[in-house]
Structures are given as structure tokens and as C-alpha cells.
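Anyone have C-alpha cells for Signal recognition particle protein? Sequence:
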Amino acid sequence: MFTSLSDRLTATFKNLRGKGRLTESDVNSTIRDIRLALLDADVALPVVKQFTAGVRERALGAEVSQALNPAQQVVKIVNDELVSILGGETRTIQYAKNPPTVIMLAGLQGAGKTTLAGKLAYWLKDQGHTPILVAADLQRPNAVTQLEVVGERAGVPVFAPERGNIGGHDAVGPTGEGTRSFGDPIAVSRAGIEQARQKQHDVVIVDTAGRLAVDADLMQQAANIRAAIQPDEVLFVIDAMIGQAAVETAQAFQEGVDFTGVVLSKLDGDARGGAALSVASITGRPIMFASTGENVKDFEVFHPDRMASRILDMGDVLTLIEQAERAFDRSQAEEMQRKFLAEEDFTFDDFLSQMAALKKMGGLKSMLGMMPGMGQMKAQLDNLDPKEFDRIEAMVRSMTPFERTHSKQINGSRRARIAKGSGVQVSEVNALLERFTEAQKMMKQLARGGGIPGMPGMPG
Ligand code: GDP
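Reply: yep, here.
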């Protein structure tokens, strides 16, 4: 997602590199490029206009920074504006003072609501809550079963209408749905919330019905449920792949159910994604979460600032750290913590396994950016080609076990041997050793200074 937008913007910024001063025509042509990139990415026209106007005003204004060169200034301005159209501050669930907090899900059929229900429940559980899922999507009998499967995967209970009642006394829903509906979603939602109260679940997630296209009945039903259960949050789930229709759909749901937040689903897809980017700006509602796959863990809190830097390819270090948290298992984390506390213990083998773990998680640049000691090298690394990692790996593999644990003893002849063994110049081995020493130092500092925020099992 967003790769082509990202590539386009990066290319635009490249043209500015090396300019000592930005003229009005530099600014104009940059803005023209940005505008085209956004439109090609399906960003809605009013949002594009607002965006480019903001960038132009600031780029031509008095914002001259001594610390940044002109290209960097433009990147910073574009980044700030991007953060702002994505909703500014990060916002997640606001919990009710008196539990249970009730979260209602709304969206088109196929948007990913049911899948999201499981992910959200799993995430809430991970945050120490005791969620329960309520199956109020009674349009499709399958939806209830699907929610039960999802709940099982997330390890969270599901409240569903008794199957005996299907087609029974509730055969006509509140919207006069008649035979297509097999229960009253309002009654089920209320009963679910009551159950949560009795069994001390502090969050209730109510999954409601969707249809293939926005229609008045669906909206009325959702509005009726909203009015009846007074949820604390109404999350509108939208498929990031649906293109320009996103804006219209979001507006219809805003009018219909007045949602409090947005969840972008299928962000793992390769759609252009711009329409999804328009939703926060058009509706004025924050994007709270992103759904990024079919697995229950493929779910993230949406951070406008991090998403902006991801789009601008500035390395999404914080998200990577969070992912690292999940990817590292506990024993590995404890081992790392131990090593963090003792500089000498951090060996080339750790260095390699860290790199391998991080390589799994994302692009090389952002990966190295978050490695201890590598952060400061970001500028140099910006021009790094991906083969660099392979070369580093080859060099470490050419070291003996003794050398991997005693880096200070790698003298000239050992360096020459390592270089020969891995097919690189001695200068590259020197550079690696320098880098490694930096990393060790950084480890020590981090251990003293309280650790990397968010790293697993790390102090602090
Ligand atoms: P609902 O009708 O809104 O409840 O949508 P579902 O939860 O049933 O999802 C519709 C389809 O999209 C299913 O095949 C899901 O597996 C798939 N899906 C949901 N979320 C994601 C996601 O984040 N990424 C991908 N790749 N697929 C998803």
C-alpha cells in the first residue's frame, strides 16, 4: 500500500536536492508534482487542494530553518501537512467511566468488520481488557458463525442469539427487514451488553450487518442500533482498496451513524490507498486503527505521524519497534536484556541475529535505523543498497567463533583474512568493526539510560 505514492514523492524531493535556495518556481513545480502524485494515488480532490495549498503557503512563507536545507524543509512541510490530513494526533478507544465500554462496528459488507472484531478483541485483551464480542450481524446466518470462529481465534467469548430463535419471534427486524433477517439486532446487542455487565467484561464489541452497497435500510438499521445501545465508540471499518468510492461511503456512514473513528482495513493490499487517506480529512473523524492482513495479529494502532513518514519513506522506526516487540519471543528478549546490561556480551552473533530478525520486519533502511548505533548513521544509510546487508552477513560469517565474541582482538591479519573470506575490501571490514563498536557503545548507553522505549523486556 502507498508504495507508488511514496516513490513519486521521493522522486519529487530528489529534484530539490542540492538546491541552495528554493525559488518560487521550484516550489511551484514541486507542488505540481505532489498534486499529481496525490491524484494518481486516488486522494480526493478537495483533500489534494487543501493539502497543496497548505504546502505552498508554508513553503513560500517565512519558514526558513538554519538546520535544514531547502529539500529537507519541503519534506518537513509535506510531512507535517500529511500528518494533518491523516488526522493529526494518534487517538484510540476512549473507555467509558462506567464499564462496559461499548464499541459498535459499522461498514459495508466485506469491508473486514468481522475480521476486525477479532483483531480488536485480541488487541484489547493484550492491553489487559476483558472484551466480549456480540454477534448483531443477523442478515447472514453465516456472519454469526464467522464471528464465533473469529472469537475463538482471538480467545474471546462471543455472545450470539440462540440458534433456536432463528426465524422465530424476531423474524421481522426493526427495519422491517422481514424474512432476510433472522433476529432483532437491537435485542441481541442489549442482551450482549447485559451479559457483559453480569460477567464483568469491560469492553463490548458489537458487530453489525453490512451490505454490498450503501442503502437506506442498512443505514437505518445501524442508526437504530446506535440509538438503542448508545455506544461509546462507533468504528467505521473501510476497505482501503475501494478507491474513490471510499469518500462517498464514508460520508454516507457519517450521516447515517455518525461514527467516532475510522478503521482502515486491508492496508496490506497493493491498492493506491489515497482514497483511504482522504477519509479522515473529509469526515473530520480520526483513523484509529489499521488492519493489515487476515491474521488476528495483523492490526496496528494508526499513528498519523508514523504513517506520514512511512509514505515519505523516512523509515517508520517506531512501528518497527512495536513489531519487533511481537516478533521477538520472550526468551530472546530476556537474553537481549541481559546483553544490554553488559557491553562485552553483545557479540557479532547477536548483531547478526538482530539483523536477521529485523530484516524480516521491513525495509533495510528503516531496519538499520532502529538498530543500536545505526540510528545516527541514517544519513549515510540513505544511499545504502540492499546488498550491503548480504556483505555484512558474509563478513560476520567469515569470522571465527572467537572473533565474533572478541571483536577488539580482530587485528590486521585477521581483518585481511575476513576480507578475503567474504570477498570484500579490508576497508569494509574496518568500517563494519567501527560500526559494531558503535553498536556496543550504544547498547551500554541504553542499558544505563533505561533502555529503548517499547523494546521487549528492556529496562524502562
Ligand atoms: P465483513 O463483511 O465486513 O464482516 O468482512 P469480513 O471480516 O468477513 O472480511 C471480508 C474479507 O476480507 C475476508 O475474506 C477477510 O479475510 C478479508 N480481510 C479482512 N480484513 C483484511 C485485511 O486487513 N487484509 C486482508 N488481506 N484481508 C482482509
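The CA atoms of residues 237 and 263 lie 5 Å apart.
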